[in-house]
Amino acid sequence: MSNSGAWDEEEERFDEQDPEDSDQDELFEHFRIVADKGQELLRVDKFLQNRLEKTSRSRIQSSAEAGNIQVNGKQVKSNYRVKPGDVVAVVFAHPPRDRELKPENIPLDIVYEDDDVIVINKKPGMVVHPGYGNYSGTLVNALIYHFQHLPLYQQKQPRPGLVHRLDKNTSGIMVMAKNEFALTHLARQFFERTTKRTYLALVWGDFQEDEGTVIGHIGRDVRDRKLFAVFPDGSQGKHAVTHYKVIRRFSYVTLVECKLETGRTHQIRVHMKYKGHHLFNDDTYGGDQILKGTTSSSYKHFINNCFEILPRHALHAKSLGFIHPTSGKELFFDSELPKDMSETIQKWETYAVHRIEKEN
């Protein structure tokens, strides 16, 4: 019998990423067990309970119900009977980790909460999950503190309750699970892309069209592995699809709504850059420079004022829809733009009006 965390390469890749990396619709293998030649027929939940320390049978059954138990590469239910030579794998929506996570009393902007899920409006600047250079002050530290009484948050989970992420400097709606069943149920929805997510982004330049779709594999930039890039020929990275629609035009910048069909790291930021519309003040992908407009000193002063008001990339996760794990009802949550983005947009509205008046 062998028992190992089989995705060492995936885990290493994950650890290289900045802690504020965004949503990832993928599953990671945590345990891989090959049944002995003399293995008697045994239910897979019992088989795993015998081999995984500190893992309850109910938790294993919840994972199986969510499709996170695989035998020979295929999803199985709890009553599947393991036979000699079977390869049993346990997969989850987060990579395996060892680091101890500490509770911290950090206020949360709670939009909705019940016994199964909690929906928050994340503030810009908050890292979601502890990582290199950010081992405190994160959303996970806050969740562990606020839910210390819940079993899920007492087991030192690699990412308690989280099924998706937002970049550090992206604000907006997030959902977290409060128990094991909800966690596996929500993770499956994100993996199967049945959730409904919309973002608002302020980007450089104007669009010829009112709406469109960007399709292009996203993977690590071959010149700088801290960044991501589009590989239109599909030679690298993973399939990614972003639908966009123009909301308001301000001549030199545009407010667009983006809907994610996939959830790759930095997807909107990378796809918009690929289209030639870098996110406004995105210092990672070049949007923190004046990319459109005039060369006048007054315009430069105006842009610098906008950068001061919005000292981050202009991206907000405005809404999120998903199926409630217990009730089966579809829930939908919307949010207002945060103050820094709304004030910046208001400045651009005023600028555009004055520019039109001058031209006339």
Brief overview, please?
With 360 residues, the protein is α+β, with helices and mostly antiparallel strands.
Low-pLDDT stretches? 1-24
CATH superfamily of the domain at 198-317 and 339-359: Pseudouridine synthase
* Highest CATH level, the class of the domain at 198-317 and 339-359: Alpha Beta
Q: Can you write the helix and strand succession as a string? A: EHEEHHEEEEEEHEHEEEEEEHHEEH
Instruction: Give the terminus-to-terminus CA distance.
Output: 79 Å
Largest sheet: 9 strands, mixed
CATH topology of the domain at 198-317 and 339-359: Pseudouridine synthase
Tally of separate helices: 8
Fraction of helical residues: 10-25%
CATH architecture of the domain at 198-317 and 339-359: 2-Layer Sandwich
Tally the beta strands: 18
- Beta-strand percentage? 25-35%
Average pLDDT number: 86
Query: Could you tell me the radius of gyration in angstroms?
Result: 23 Å
Broad shape: elongated
Structural class, from secondary structure content?
alpha+beta
